[in-house]
Amino acid sequence: MVVLNGLELKTPESGIIAVLGPNGSGKTTLIKSILGMVVPQKGEIEVNGQRVKKHWNYRENIDYLPQIANFPGNLKVKELIDMIKDLRGKEARDWELIELFKLEPFLQKKLNNLSGGSKQKVNLVLCFMFNSPLIILDEPTSGLDPVSLIRLRKLIQQEKENGKTILITSHIMNFVEEISDRIVFLLEGKIYFNGTVEELKTSTGEKDFEHAIANILTGNHA
Amino acid sequence: MLKILKYSFYDLSRSLWSYVYFFFYLLLGVVLLFLNNDLSNAVITLMNVIIVLVPLIGTIFGVMYFYNSREFTELLLAQPVRRSSIFLGQYLGVAISLSASLILGLGLPFIIYGLFQSGAIWDFVSLLVSGVFLSFIFTALAFNIALSYENKIKGFGLAILLWLFLAVVYDGLFLLSLVYFQDYPLDKFSLVASMLNPIDLSRILILLKLDISALLGYTGAVFKQFFGTGLGAFTSIGVLILWVLLPVWRIKYISAKKDF
Amino acid sequence: MCRFFLFIIFVFASVVSRAQEIEVCKTCEVKTIQAAVDMARDGDILKIKSGIYKEHDISIIDKSISIIGEGLPVIDAQMKGTALSIRAENFSVEGLKIINVGRSHTSDFAGILVSNSKNFELKNNRLDKVFFGILLERASEGIILGNKITSNAKSQSTSGNGVHIWKSEKITVKNNQVIGLRDGIYLEFVNNSEVIDNLCKDNLRYGLHFMFSDHDLYKGNVFENNGAGVAVMYSKFIDMHNNKFRKNWGSASYGLLLKEINDSELRNNIFEDNTIAISADNTNRINYIENNFRNNGYAVRIRGAVYDNNFQRNNFLYNSFDIAYTGKLNNNKFSNNYWSGYSGYDLDKNGIGDVPFRPVSLFSYLVNKTPEAIVLLRSTFIDLLDFSEKVSPIFTPANLIDDQPLMKRIQW
């Protein structure tokens, strides 16, 4: 099955890039390709000048937040965090994040017994606790309560200020509009638009971001 | 890989099934030795258990673990870890924990019974060696199946079929062809056919200890050389190692190409 | 009776009083054994001092003398023929070491050849690198005791037997060790004799071989790793007690081969690790009672023309096959045996299983037809096959059963 086809994308050194597109447009596949979870049949992917194919250590420089927080259910939250720390062998700021998302009461619980929102928080801790230059967030907002959402937004801004590259996919348009420096719009595995929010608005002639997106979609279908 | 192995092992050590498996062997060992009180009988019963049950548990457990730890696998795939390390680590985790259940579960009652003072120790060792090989082989085969089929039902079905084929059907076909072609010299064929099935192979490894008197009753020179010298044990172990290595290599090969 | 006994003592004492001792050694007056024999008279004692005597065909004819080796003197026959050849009554040979007996295709050279003799004793001799060890022809009332006979037999045509007895009677063969010959002990036309407590090991053909010999007893012997343990052929009234048959491995190898023998009994023997523990062929009225069959390929293989054999109270323990059977049941009986493969139950707790046991498996039939199938031994498929055959026998004789299988091993 061909999901992504003839896609060429270069991202600048830092800033927040939002990858948008309807369901099945290839957002997750794009992310998984970067992570090496999906092996491209053709073409090359490079991260920080390092080829992805058949390599693995470039992932030391990537923090990834998967879309669905699936964890081994037998483990306790604390054990999971320790395990990932052990695997990476890098310094981590897990306590800071645990406090930020108020996860202390859940640390000794098994992941099976956690609600979707709490799982997502654990997911976020695992993702942000390492200080990697590239952060990939697949639907970071799903299941989060408003308070945590605000904290997440702050966290992302902070990371951006630290000079990191952040790749985000999200369905929540005002979240995207607010934080992203650049929009990449995917449709049927191809890049439909690649530019800033402002450029998107001007090119579609819409004032409102959500409408601009809708415009691309309807324009395509028409 | 060692880290993955550690965590797979850790994960399995909390799974109820590992304990069920361990206690099953413990119970079996205790019942056979202390209620029946006959070492030779125990060894023969254990042989039947090992050549039937160990492959079955290996396949089912392997497939089950693989499908159940999909989340874990995906989590790991995004980490800076080599792909082959992930799958080989998980594979070794399952295979080692199954082997450990087997060795400890049977070993403890046997040691308490005073195995070291008895002549049956080598029979018992050959049982355990075969059991460990079968665990490693069938877990690897199970991982192969699970890696190739996303659909759990299909994977499970295929795994059970594979077990049924190698444990029972294969020998049926084998016997049928022996009887059908009995006018031809069959000694080489029968040895090769035994090599092609890891269950038969480990059975022969045990037979070399248990029934050598009967095996040496056959007149063929090839048999005589195979069973009468160290060649039989040597070849059997060699081919068993191959039976582990090939599926493991395939795990590595498929997993390198697979999308998640 | 008492008077007769006194007479014997008197005769014996008078013989001893006239007896003369002749010493043989390198520095003695008499330097060779033959010379000593030539000068000896009835009742003399020849003391052979230790040393090497390169002599062969030493012959003792019609002289009742005792030859006693002191410090194990060696008679080296230098591969030239028989070492010691005796035709006499009332003699004994003791404590000699005899080596390098000649080999021949035409003559049966032996360490000690005894022919047409009576009332003798061959005791505690060591024979090494011999063709035949001790060879008896037309002898009677002899004792062969505590000898050790070894050789390095390579092929049946170039080797002889350890103790070979032909046309003799009332011979006792006791406490000997026979290792590495063709047959360990061979008896042909030997009646009313006993073979007791011997060890026969690593012999090419049989540990003990009976041919046309009746009313004999062998007991307490150990037969290990011979071509076949014991062959009893064309004989009758043989008692076989308390022997051990071990590790007789090979395609034509048996613990005990019975061929055309009648009216005999096997009791309290142990058969361990043999390819075939007992192979019976043309045997009639044989009782097998309280024997142990352990870890054999086949415990008992019954071939044709076997009538009225009775297997009772034996232990069949973990043999690959308990019974292999050719032909009809022919009034042979199996009852009250213990079978380790028996999986029945005993609800009335009388120690006897409530379901009969079928000792012949379908697989043994298959292996008989297709020997290569042996590699499938103990496989799950075969177990299923055997199980279904036991439930409803089609290929195996339906009436071949032990209808009173014991629940516990017989201790004897």
UniProtKB/TrEMBL annotation, chain B:
Protein's organism: Salegentibacter maritimus
Superkingdom of origin organism: Bacteria
Residues annotated as transmembrane: 16-36, 42-67, 88-112, 124-147, 159-181, 201-219, 226-246
Keywords annotated in UniProt: Membrane, Transmembrane, Transmembrane helix
Protein name in UniProt: ABC transporter permease subunit
